[in-house]
Amino acid sequence: MNTELLGVIAMFVATLLLALPLGKYIAKVYSGDKVWTDTFMGPLEKLFFKLSRIDELREMSWKQHLTTLLTINLIWFLWAMFCLLNQNWLPLNPDHIPAQAPDMAFNTAISFLVNCNLQDYSGETGASYFTQVYALMFLQFVSAGTGMAAAAVVFNALKDRSTEKLGNFYNYFLKSCTRILLPICILVAVMHVFNGTPMTFKGMETQISMQGDTTQVSRGPVAAFVAIKHLGTNGGGFFGANSTHPLENPNYFTNMLQLIIQILIPFAMVFAMGFYLRRKKLAWVFWCVMTIGFLLLVVPTVIAEIHGNPALAHMGISQPGGNMEGKEVRFASYATAFWSIATTVISTGSVNGMHDSFMPVSGMNMLLGMMINSFYGGVGVGFLNFFIYVILAVFIGGLMVGRTPEFLGKKIEAREMKIAMIIALFHPFLILVFTAISSYLAAHNTDMGWWFTDANCKHNAIGWFNNPSYHGFSEMLYQYTSCSANNGSGFEGLADNNPFWNITAGIVLLFSRYLPIIGPVAIAGLLAQKKYIPESGGTLKTDTSTFGLLVFAVKIIIAALAFFPALALGPIAELFTRH
Amino acid sequence: MKNKKGAGLLQGDIAIEALKQSFIKLDPRILFRNPVMFTVEIGMVIMLAVCFWILGGESHQGSFTYNFIIFLILLATLLFANFAESLAEARGKAQAATLRKTREETPAKKIIHIGEMFLNEVKVVPSSQLEKGDFFICEKGDIIPTDGEIVEGIATIDESAITGESAPVIRESGGDKSSVTGGTKVLSDKIKVRVTTEPGESFLDKMIALVEGATRQKTPNEIALNILLAGFTLVFIIVCVTLHPFAQYAKTPIPVSAYISLFVCLIPTTIGGLLSAIGISGMDRALRANVIAKSGKAVETAGDIDVLLLDKTGTITIGNRKATNFYPAPGIDEQHFIKNAVLSSFSDDTPEGKSIIELAGILPLSYKIENPQFIKFTAETKSSGIDFGNTSIRKGAYDSMKKMVELAGNKFPEKTATDVTKISSNGGTPLVVIENNNVVGVIELQDIIKPGIQDRFDRLRKMGVRTVMVTGDNPLTAKFIAEKAGVDDFIAEAKPEDKMDYIRKEQSTGKLVAMMGDGTNDAPALAQADVGVAMNSGTSAAKEAGNMVDLDNDPTKLIEIVEIGKQLLMTRGTLTTFSIANDVAKYFAIVPALFIVSIPALQSLNIMNLHSPQSAILSAVIFNAIIIPMLIPLALKGVTYKPIGASALLRRNLLVYGLGGIILPFIGIKIIDLFVGLFM
């Protein structure tokens, strides 16, 4: 038990120790300072820019940044759709996997494009190696790079000067991929190969088990996929079972490694902001706010899981390993509970256990992690989400000290508030409205026609539950929360591979990815144009614990309270009913 | 012009007027401007419809009485909010009316060209009867009744108590020095003035109208806050609307009244209801301090000020310099010099002159002097004095005295010249006395720093405001006084354009600058400054340029204005925090009440142990309503500002209004529930 606890603490500490130098390195990369990767990545980047005729020194306004970002994202979407719909005849398909159905292809392409990786298909049977590498893995890189580049634009805009010129998007984007994601991924992939993760283009292998049965074991370029899946907080597994699969996550060491690298960049981005803007104290305040939130979610979850299921205890069954339903023995309760919260506060969404089988408190905490979506958050976008709450907190706090609110020397006025409020509103809006639609359909057991067909070829909405009642409600709530947080993990137990869930989830994904990028970049761009006001004794200091507390309170009250009635009907009702 | 009305919140007629207005303001067309309260009104109308529905036979919505009570509470919520706004407005109007009355009482010597008996007859009328184009005369000692332009004559006008310039100003017909302003005092000579403004159209009148005006412009901060509140309202619309299908899924029928109650409790009605009252009372508080703000924005901006430009004289130092020392010229007996000094000030009515006699301690009358001829101070000679027998004594500034002495062929003694420099470098002003064009000595006039001014600057520094002293003195003197008074910076030998340059320089680094001014030559700087406070006694150009007018002509008023501005923002911020923090308790009251019937397990969420679902909902809605009138006094008076630094202030306000806002409704709702429970 104590070893397990130490393992979890060691993971956290190791992540922090690695994130600090990485943050400094990221800040240098975005500032254009000399770094050690210049020697071998510099020429490669120059070649890219030359071939694509991009002048990486041309500075862009915030609007140009966003236009560029959205345009290249659209192109990537079309490419992914092409691969998914044509994988049957494209190369690298040794197992003869058929093309995906259009609604599923739409869902898959969108969900990888937006760094969510909600997988309604199973990797073994739904995607060829060509798709896995050139569509999905490619998107895992570029979607992470997009988020980081957007954060870099915001960093640039928050400098203490007035300007419209905020660097070049292509430059930020390419360097995010070549200088940060690629080198670490290579290292992590190699470490996985040494631990037994496959890395091959050969098709399934036939094996004869000890019982004498013949089984077909899926394999493929898994090690490379797993590295970017976690480093880019994507979370989409090569195999359907994600990181519970023994080939995708062979042992406790790889489990630790995957946990560390998924939290690594979200940590490092906060510190990068501190180094980049020379406001290290502010970075620590932000990091502490995030960490307190994270701990408040992770500690009760770990406790709930190690104490096992009271319903089983009631029957007199001893549970020395805690609640082991849906967990892998090689990871056990501590690490799996820790992972479940890490993967939800950060928008990874990869799983190493079955979230559906966790205790109600854990389920609620996972939901809360995604509802708040900025206790660390995904690569780049986590910081952007956090930034929105900072703007709201600055506004309220500024008024409370009797001064027109300002953040880092820039006044927060009506226009910025409007954008911040729309973004803060959209997250609960998407989650609640879509959960309401599906609840309505389920409550009336509507005939869904083409939109939904269950295993028994029935079209009634109630058929998408494995467990009706409160838990069923949690499943629907979880699905849309996971989409809106661009998380991609599933509560499972929900029949979600059908047009209704594929399409509604896809819509939620699109909005919830791009609005939280557009909003913060727009706010930062508007702030950058404003006059810089030096701090005085009357200015609200943002690098203090008091301000940290305010940000925390704003997050809890705006993000969590809006979901209180919904949570009361799902996990809370379940929690109190079971006892 | 002191105008301190009782600060009591409820004065009979004001309260009645406010009460009437709170019903008139229920008109949705008026209420539409306040999105939070407008949604409450929609909720109220829905509740009324539900009441009729029940009367028509609907049976799933609970009893008619219960629904009707909720309707009444919502109506009360609206009335309370309207009352807060009306009360603030009514108080502002009452203030403005008093101001206007006081204003009309200055006597004016109006010239009637074809009079009752003669041509150009002079008649004393109240200043309010002067019309544009009328003429009036002002003689020595008169207060100029209204703004105008000199058409005849030249006069020295004392603006010392108000403008800060201790030396009288010269105004004469023709040229740009011809305008005079109401409230200033003529010291010498006689002028004929043409009135330049219509009665009731003077700058002051226009501004009173502004204060009274119902069409109040929202300030940028208020707009931003409204967006925040509208955002919260939208979030809770979504929460309440989506709750319906959720409840259907959970097979829990929820009556309309519960949705409406949950919604009204969650949206920030407390701040929404008090927001405009806070804004109006901010201007009202300024008015109470005898400052008329042209817009609410000006008051708000005052809270953001980084740099404060203050004139030395009258602000940092007591308006007039005082004699502090006599330095006889070499070879002159001290008593003889003092005698000369006293005699030269015989007819000198200026505070400086009086202070010389005071310092000497000898009355001029004690010297037996035959046939004295007093020489008044004139702008041309820049000196005053006395002639008797064949003695002629003059006193005046170093430059003019030196000229006189050297013109007569005498030498200006070396020692006295050194004394003069020494006095200047100590922050004083030297006045040289000559007898028959021979120097007898120099009198030292010193600026007296106002008692307590250091503390005020200290307070400003803690607020984050830097003070800058503006003076016409030489840099040496300026530095001396600046250090003694504790200002952060100074502009010496300041010409009007220096102020302007300084303001521009500070603004270019992003700072907000406030200044106070009076003269026409201050007008550009007043317009350039982010907060320009014109003295009421100042020229109309200055008043047009600034965005506030100080009726007391008190230059330290800026400090109060800054505090009023900060208070205004703080009151909004703290009440917003309070309002949002209240939601936590309201959730815990209402959410269990909604589901308890179908999901008994949720009784565990009823941590307040409220009597029944209906009493829980009623208690929450009642608490939500009565918190508004309870906070009206705070909204009108404003949250107290303490210059303890921004972080400490935030900590304090978060503790009081944030944590307090979470805890108080738990207690309040529980108490109301105990009471409501008695009837159920």
Give the overall silhouette of chain A.
Answer: globular
Helix-residue proportion of chain A: 55-70%
Strand content of chain A: under 5%
Q: Using DSSP, what is the number of strands of chain B?
A: 22
Low-confidence stretches of chain A: none
Q: Could you give a short account of the major beta sheet of chain B?
A: 7 strands, mixed
Radius of gyration of chain B: 34 Å
Shape of chain B: elongated
The structural class of chain B is alpha+beta
Order of helices and strands of chain A: HHHHHHHEEHHHHHHHEEHHHHH
Largest sheet of chain A: 2 strands, antiparallel
Mean pLDDT of chain B: 82
Detailed description of the structure:
By secondary structure, chain A is an all-alpha fold. In chain A, 63% of the residues lie in helices and 2% in strands. Chain A has helices spanning 2-31, 38-51, 62-86, 102-113, 123-126, 129-157, 169-194, 222-231, 252-276, 280-306, 310-314, 332-345, 360-372, 381-400, 414-443, 469-484, 499-529, 545-560, 564-578; strands at 205-208, 214-217, 406-407, 410-411. In chain A, strand 3 (406-407) and strand 4 form a beta hairpin. Chain A is globular and about 75 Å long. The relative contact order of chain A is 0.12. Chain B has 680 residues and is of the alpha+beta class. A 7-stranded mixed β-sheet of chain B has the order 10-22-21-20-11-18-19, with helices on both faces. In chain B, strand 21 (531-535), helix 19 and strand 22 form a beta-alpha-beta unit. The longest helix of chain B is centred in the first third of the chain and has 40 residues, at 64-103. At the A-B interface, helix 14, helix 15, helix 18 and helix 19 of A face helix 7, helix 15, helix 20 and helix 22 of B.
